[in-house]
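Record 1 of the preview.
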Amino acid sequence: MEWAYLLLGATVGLLGGLFGIGGGTVLVPVLLLLFDAQQFPPEHLLHLALGTSMATIIFTALASLYKHHQHRAVDWNVVRTITPGILIGTGLGSLLATSIPTHFVGILFALFVYFAAAQILFDLRPPVSRQLPGKLIIRLFGVFAGTLSSLVSIGGGTVVIPFLLRSNLSIRHAIGTSAAISFPVAIGGTIGYVATGLNASGLPPLSLGYVYLPCLLWTAAASVITAPLGAKAAHRMNIGVLRKLFAVLLLLLATKLLFKVLG
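->
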């Protein structure tokens, strides 16, 4: 299983660097399959996948944002302004995720991935007609983005990048800034999933709350190697074709997840 975790981490790191996303949209469906194959308790499958995914994003985001920062593609004013709201939202989302029925969270996640894939596949970008809003609006948006990101275990890029594009940031700066924002999203979300899972019974050995540590070790190790490569490629190549392929991958994973939770 270690090789599967390594391959998954390498893929997520590369995609995270390229698109400024944490990689939860790929991690969660695949981890569900891997954890199910290891015969983890069915009632904990989704929460373990969500929590472990969020913890992995910490390392992916850190490696990715460092490379984007080297290319001067991170708007640190936006990052500093949005982070307090992000931290509040991720804690709220973690609490909601453990109190909402598993099937509902799974369906919500699948529908969210479909929406994200459609945006990428059909290049649905908002009109760029204004500048960044005031600090209050950015922080309130941070609460919303943090809640949704923690609830479905994503780094936040799928939510944050359209917001930044609408606020007249270039695509490369939106990706770089989103990569930096993914870090506090992952920190807050991981704390939430660890705390809410500490008293859960029947978790597999070597779990810290809803974070499965052996998986975290291997996926994080691979992702920190490939995330800088993806970030470097984002500043050197036309990623239009890769965006389309990524959207198709999201559609396939979301469909697989939807069949699983409905079945």
